[in-house]
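Here is an idea for our session: we take a single protein and study its fold together. To get us started, please write out a protein record for me. Start from the sequence, derive the backbone structure tokens from it, and show both lines together. Go ahead whenever you are ready, and we will take it from there:
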Amino acid sequence: MPTLETLRESLGGLDGRRILLRADFNVPLDAAGRIADDFRVTAALPTIRWLTEGGASVVACSHLGRPDGRPEPRYSLAPVRARLAQVAPGVELLENLRFDPGETANDDRLVQQLIEGCDGYVNDAFGASHRAHASIVGPPRYRPGAAGRLLAREAEVLLGLRAKPKQPFVAVLGGAKVSDKLGVIGALLDIADEVVIGGGMCFTFLAASGHEVGESLLQVDQIEACARLLDSGAAIRLPSDITALAPGERVVQAGVNLRPDWRGLDIGPGSAAEFSDLIAEAGTVLWNGPMGLFEDPRFAAGTKVVAQALADSRAFTVVGGGDSAAAVRQFGLDREIDHVSTGGGASLELIERGDLPGLRALRESAPPQQSAPLQQEEHHG
């Protein structure tokens, strides 16, 4: 992780400068429009303090939700602005970036609006850095750029998994769609000693193994790809039992062959115990994706057992953002994990590809001396 001095040098100094901070304030809101979890706001505070204690003024920007390129009141950053005023007084926060279609289109017009009057750029939005959006890749083309503390730590931890994980390295993957994770499964099979598959995606693998999955989530078009992975002899561990929903809202325990009218919604207790044993013996554990429909207490056991196993493990433990990060916080175990990522999709893409558009943009950013004319023009203007 860079020191404060390194951050200052990357930006050509901080004192008296105005810094554009790309944060990730994509917080969950409740039905009344209040922040349900301010984790992403507080996660930005170390970088904000670095900047303000160095003498910089900070104008932050972020997206929230998917407003599709036009203003929508329910996606206003007003609640975030109010919370930010409490925890970081004096920091300015622009309105939702995605109210402008230029954000997702990487429109240079929006980039110029964002950097106007700013001397440097800091990206601390790891969760958005896998997107080549205007606020992520645009500002470093014109202003010196640096990684914030959060982004730097994410890159350090996740790239470390690719480079030198302590063995044995166990990766636990869940979530709904196997199509979203085939790429990272392939990458992890090259570096992990075992890849454990749970969640809704396990049913496509089970179907590829010749099992009957009933009404469970199934991506028929991915069965062949899963079969190729299994036939390759790859170190993939699948569930040995399933918790399912039967007609009449009955919760039943089953093996890996389900009746036609049963729907698998969690790994079974046997699988949860087996996965926990693997985690207990590991030197490094990566977990991304819940083991079942953990939002429903009837199907939360698998996810909770795996979360507890990570919390109890002596391994270096990493939770790869998204729903699995929400789960460890829901179970009150987040402080027992070595690293809880702030980005689900970004963490998987960084592990899979070893780079992100946001990181690449910072490496190629304008050198500090290019910001000098801006200061001079403002002084004489």
The chain has 16 helices and 14 strands.
